[in-house]
Each structure stands twice: as structure tokens, then as C-alpha cells.
Amino acid sequence: MERLLEILEDIQPDVDFETRTDLIDAHLLSSLSILSLIAELEDEFDITVPAVEIVPKNFNSMKAMWDMIQRLQEEG
User: Fold this and answer.
1) What is the pTM of this model?
2) Average pLDDT of 34-54?
3) What angle do CA 64, 68, 72 make, to 5 degrees?
4) Distances (CA, A) of 42 to 19, 49, 66, 68
């Protein structure tokens, strides 16, 4: 999860990703940030994020993103 935090901080350095659970709901990540984030996650974790996964519940917190990454890696 440390690498995920590094990616998030590179994209949006002024957000406390370790404690926030409303990243989308509070508009802390813009749509462009999310697109950049998805590209980074796909490259870094060797996953494909399908369109059906691009929903607020998967991106509102770092933990939710990590859970999604792990699930997508397991599904292969």
C-alpha cells in the first residue's frame, strides 16, 4: 500500500490520503486526477480497471483503492 500512497501523493500532494474517506465526495480528486491515477495503477500493479469499477466507492479512500487493486489482481 506504500506504493499506492506514493502514486496518490504524486498526483495530489496536498491531500491526507491516509485518513480521508471522502476523496471523491469532497471533490479532492478531479476527473483528470482519477484518469491519471487509473493509468498509474494499471501500470504499477499490472491490472486493468474496467469502466464498471470506476465508481466513487472504489476511489473515496486509499483503502478502497487498495481493496480494488487486490481484487483485480486476484481476478487476473
Assistant:
1) 0.94
2) 97
3) 175
4) 23, 7, 12, 12
